Amino acid sequence: MERPLTEHLKQDGTALTLAEYRAAGGYEGLKKALAGMSAEAVVEQVKEANLRGRGGAGFPTGVKWSLVPRGEGAPHPKYLVANADEMEPGAFKDRLLLERNPHQLLEGMILAAFAIEADVAYIFLRGEYVDAARRLRVAIDEARDAGLLGRRIQGSDFSLELHLHISAGRYICGEETALINALEGKRATPRAKPPFPQISGAWGQPTVVNNVETLCNVPHIIRNSAAWYHGLGLEEESGTKLFGVSGRVRKPGVWELPMGTPIREIFEDCAAGMRDGYALRGFLPGGGSTDFLLPEHLDLPMTYESIGKAGSRMGTGTLIVLDDRTCPVGMVLNLERFFAQESCGWCTPCRDGLPWTRQLLEAIEDGSGRPEDLDTLEEHCRFMGPGKTFCALAPGAMEPLQSALKYFREDFKRHIREGCCPYRKAEA
């Protein structure tokens, strides 16, 4: 099974140098594009490959690129931004790529910039990723010294300046327009759309924002063809995906597998199942802002469509496991505390609704909840659902809550009925 994103990573955990990356075929995709491909041809190949955004939304990458104005009359400068602000609870896939193979990201960014005719590129990096920042700086210097960045890259007519931007850090910066505001030095709040960033983004200029994993796929597509990329996936999806598992499993971690891999294979074969003494009760399939699924869903393929039909989202593809000795109310409370803290405060439902949700859950978990609190929580799930807020932060925050009320409602009722958390009582 081919693993283009991770197959050349070194076992000692250090980053690939420029020489090591080139020895593994690195920058061959860029060489091919600069030697004989137009910007439009690169876009079309990514479209044909059906590369979908790996940051959570799954939007077709080539389609996003095709919306950027191009040609002689297009405005300049244009910008490309790699979203490396990985703050989704339970997600740690981009960190692996950033720390272990930074040149793969750089090549993907150069190719993407070539495709959209960008002049300047930024890596918007989460501030806590200190090792990634250090390794990226080394890789950027190596690439610049080798003529892979700057003026007339590899003797071509294409030029690109690339900068590393260390984020001050907020979850909302994962939303592309909030990220753009933060990059400009403004408050990290989402912008109204339209206009979309591809038309008017950073400093009012055409801008494309792509996730790290998404960009890392691009060199392999250009080097090997769209047909090759299609052949890597299962079901109807193309390519591979980094899937992660956290929680009380025997082997938490992250693995590169074909898109469409069954959840059971990720959970049992890769993560080796639950630790001794623990049983699987449920899981969030794509990070903290997705709906719970149950053991009965383990045989679903990890695709956007199949997980969506089951009532959740594939999101980042990083599973968070709920075991039978962890309180689901406490688990959801922990997530809602995070989301309430990370709200940018721009719109009323999110600014006021998330702290209210947190307070209700705290009361239930502490034993002072009332039966009517469950009705209020369900109202919050509706009032902060899709289309009711300025961006997707609050609707995402409601996903684990609404599904917990659906699947684990008896746990909520027990807290209220017994006046305490039964899981903490059992441990006492």
UniProtKB/TrEMBL annotation:
InterPro entries noted in UniProt: NADH-UbQ_OxRdtase_51kDa_CS, NADH-UbQ_OxRdtase_suF, Nuo51_FMN-bd, Nuo51_FMN-bd_sf, Nuop51_4Fe4S-bd, Nuop51_4Fe4S-bd_sf, Soluble_ligand-bd
The keyword Chaperone is annotated on this UniProt entry: no
Molecular-function GO terms, alphabetical: NADH dehydrogenase (quinone) (non-electrogenic) activity
SMART domains: NADH_4Fe-4S
Domain NADH-ubiquinone oxidoreductase 51kDa subunit iron-sulphur binding: 329-374
EC number(s) on file: 7.1.1.-
Keywords: 4Fe-4S, Flavoprotein, FMN, Iron, Iron-sulfur, Metal-binding, NAD, Oxidoreductase, Quinone, Translocase
Catalyzed chemical reaction(s): a quinone + NADH + 5 H(+)(in) = a quinol + NAD(+) + 4 H(+)(out)
Highest taxon of the lineage: Bacteria
PROSITE patterns reported for this sequence: COMPLEX1_51K_2
Cofactor(s) needed: FMN; [4Fe-4S] cluster
Family: Belongs to the complex I 51 kDa subunit family.
Job of this protein: NDH-1 shuttles electrons from NADH, via FMN and iron-sulfur (Fe-S) centers, to quinones in the respiratory chain.
UniProt protein name: NADH-quinone oxidoreductase subunit F
Organism this protein belongs to: Marinobacterium aestuariivivens
